[in-house]
Amino acid sequence: FFGQVPGAPADVIFALISSYKADSHAQKVDLGVGAYRTDEGKPWVLPVVKKADHIMMDDDALDHEYLPILGLEPFRKASVKLILGANSKAIAEGRAGAAQCISGTGAVYAGAHFLSKHYPIKGAACYISKPTWANHRAIFEGVDMQVLEYPYWDPATKGLDLKGMLRTMQSAPNGSIFVIHPCAHNPTGVDPTNDQWRQIADVMESKGHFPFFDCAYQGFASGSLDKDAYSVRYFVDRGFEMFIAQSFSKNFGLYSERAGNLTIVARSVEVKNRIESQIAKAQRAVISNPPAYGSRIVSVVLNNETLYGEWEQNLSTMANRIIGMRKILFDELIRLGTPGTWNHIVDQIGMFSFTGLTTSQVKVLKEKYHVYLTDNGRISMAGLNSKNVKYFAQAVDFVVRN
Ligand code: PLP
Ligand code: TYF
């Protein structure tokens, strides 16, 4: 049957993980995947997650029955509250809905799939930022939507190309779909300011565009969960209907447990219920119902004031270590007198830095220094630690000079 099937290319990031693992060099450095590491370069199980684990293990009432199709009720409620804020008018008015999904990826997929079936404007295109997380294109093309790009990164300023972004939003047909990173943009680490969000909302409102937020790093950008939700809450206050895909992979360190949620802000309770019913129908055919373990952990923490406070502290530990590494890397490059400007290393936020290194420089980093990062020059800051940051700075210094 399958003699004609062509092979598909490997996922870039997962291929990078494999080549890093296969490298036996003692000083190898992994700056590829966006996963938090301790200063010892090890994965970190958050202490609050360990606590939640024990609470669950001691709970004799827990069983392994199926969850409902849309997932664990207290998880869904808490996820919506986390992103929209406890005082959100959308929650008070009962028009905020939720579907537990297979982590952030599954939430983007569930939303994209729904839009491909039910978006009122036939043939509406979906705009993603240039650059963005590679899966955005794959997911929206996978549900047969036309994918276009809006400018985001300005290589000249190593910052946001706000003009280009607004120009594209302005010239896109009315009612287009825009996938937006609410905080800690992947891969650039560049976010709009509050005033820039206002300008973006102004254009999107006047054009009747639909915002689809993909929130994979709440708590990682500013270290404050509320501040990181600013853009989403601002858009809700302005009266937008929207989807928000939420991932708990990074902020809970639950990568493999696939805990995520699609928050839906609709114009009315009625419409919210109908959207949820359609997503439930689609979800039934794809996963039947979501997995329980990760969502139970998240739910235990989000629904307990003490544990919530501990989670915030764990988040600060991660965010602050990353900020510290930015500073050390920056200082090192300045000390070495590495040609170019490096302020963007400390100005960018979240898990990633978009260094501005070229594909050929990245190649030398890998071949000569055993430093692994994506071809676009993105580094996962969490891969840097007190033992390898100077080595990395020297490697960058070399490739920039040669
Ligand atoms: N969206 C963005 C922008 C991401 O960077 C990621 C992963 O890092 C995700 C979504 C989804 O990740 P996951 O499926 O592990 O929640
Ligand atoms: O960009 C990253 O490193 C994270 C991790 O299919 C990731 O988003 C990468 C690829 C993928 C899923 C997660």
TrEMBL record:
Q: What is its EC number?
A: 2.6.1.1
Write the signal peptide boundaries. none
Q: Which GO terms describe its biological process?
A: aspartate biosynthetic process
The coenzyme or cofactor needed here is: pyridoxal 5'-phosphate
Work out whether the entry's keyword set contains Transferase: yes
GO terms assigned for molecular function:
L-aspartate:2-oxoglutarate aminotransferase activity; pyridoxal phosphate binding
Mention any one GO cellular component term assigned to this protein in its UniProt record. Answer: cytosol
CDD domains with a match to the protein in the record:
AAT_like
Q: What does the subunit comment say?
A: Homodimer.
Q: Which family does it belong to?
A: Belongs to the class-I pyridoxal-phosphate-dependent aminotransferase family.
Q: What is this protein called?
A: aspartate transaminase
- Gene name of the encoded protein: AAT2_2
